[in-house]
Amino acid sequence: MVLKLHGSPLSACTRRAAMVLKEKNVPYELVLVDLSKGEHKAAAYTAVQPFGQVPYIVDDDGFTLYESRAIARYIAVKYAAQGEKLLPPLTDLHALAKFEQAASIELTNFEPFAHGIAAERVFKPRGGGVTDEKLVADYVASLKSKLDVYDVILSKSKYLAGDELTLADLFHVPYGPALKLAGVDVLEDPSRPNVLRWWKEISSRPSWLALKDGE
Fold first, then answer.
1. How far apart are CA 214 and CA 193, in angstroms?
2. pLDDT per position as a tens digit, 120-132
3. Which domain of life, per UniProt (predicted)?
4. At residue 75, does pLDDT exceed 50?
């Protein structure tokens, strides 16, 4: 049985998990969950993902797991011997700690603001809501401030956790298109040359381009 990824291609979290599966050369089947019809809130779905969110996986041995970052870590460890490494050796305590630091940076200093901008400028209007531009301005100001710090970090290392690509870098990628749709193209601002260099590299990986093109 091939691994099944239950989610939506419109979901940043589903794309995050799918990108890692592609990086690790893991065959998978995308089981479409129609968010517009509320399939993620159906009893059969919440029996596996109690929060009614996408995605979750059913591995080839029947093991189930939800939360995209947890899925990514699981895949990176299980398939450590194939594809891109994406995690430091579990025996290298210092490198592992630096990875977890970088992953925490994404979770606390990028995701809340990128998601907030996308929610207000992209998702809310699609649902018939009205964008709160004051809130967007606050999110944008905060994100710019955080990316100023990113630029300093990335002036000292190629990636967020050091000179090797890790999951922490890839975790950022799915929100890039949403930020562009929202008219907030802060990741390609030449005033942050190190962020620009880093972003161009991670967002042009074949794993992401395949998903971006609808695979």
1. 30
2. 999 999 889 999 9
3. Eukaryota
4. yes
